[in-house]
Amino acid sequence: MSRSSSPDQSRQPQFPNDRLRVWFLTDGTSPVAIKLAEHLLEYGHSVITVLPACHSADDEERGAQFEALEAQVSSNVGWTKRFKVLRYNVRYGDDKLLLILDVARTPLN
């Protein structure tokens, strides 16, 4: 058997596919979540992201990165309808339940 030098195309991840989705990101200030949200919005997906209800001094840089994403979203009309921010303190069980209810009721057009 000979092995091909090119990777098998059927095993390549196909992201994003043709079905648009609503993505729920639980740590909106994380650098990974910020980049992911940007890419998802570029491809037409909707994003609901959660921010902590309170910020610490250590979160200033992450907060600045998120504010840059918010500025990018507000400058792109197509993105503003598909991007929602929810603020919760997800460390407490009651807030987690409220968060789930809020996500279920959040309309994205």
Layout of SSEs?
Blueprint: E1 22-25, H1 31-42, E2 46-52, H2 60-74, H3 77-80, E3 83-88, H4 93-105
Parallel strand pairs: 1-2, 2-3
Q: What does this protein structure show overall?
A:
There is one protein chain. With 109 residues, the chain is of the alpha/beta class. The protein has a single domain (20-105), classed as Rossmann fold, CATH 3.40.50. Helices cover 40% and strands 16% of the residues. The chain contains four helices and three strands, in the order βαβααβα. The protein has helices at residues 31-42, 60-74, 77-80, 93-105, and strands spanning 22-25, 46-52, 83-88. The chain has a three-stranded parallel beta sheet, sandwiched between helices. Helix 1 links the parallel strand 1 (22-25) and strand 2 (46-52). The chain is globular.
Protein traits:
Rossmann fold; single chain; 109 residues; alpha/beta; globular
Structurally, how many domains make up the residues? 1
Taking pLDDT < 50 over at least 5 consecutive residues as the criterion, the unreliable ranges are none
Question: Helix tally?
Answer: 4
Largest sheet: 3 strands, parallel
What is the CATH C-level name? Answer: Alpha Beta
Give helix and strand order, one letter per element, not per position: EHEHHEH
Category by helix and strand content: alpha/beta
The value of Rg in angstroms is 17 Å
* Spatial sequence of strands, sheet with the most strands: 1-2-3
The helix content, as a percent range, equals: 40-55%
CATH architecture: 3-Layer(aba) Sandwich
Q: What is the terminal-to-terminal distance?
A: 52 Å
**Average pLDDT number:** 77
> Which shape, going by the Cα principal axes?
globular
CATH topology-level fold name: Rossmann fold
Which percent range describes the beta-strand content?
Answer: 15-25%
Number of distinct beta strands: 3
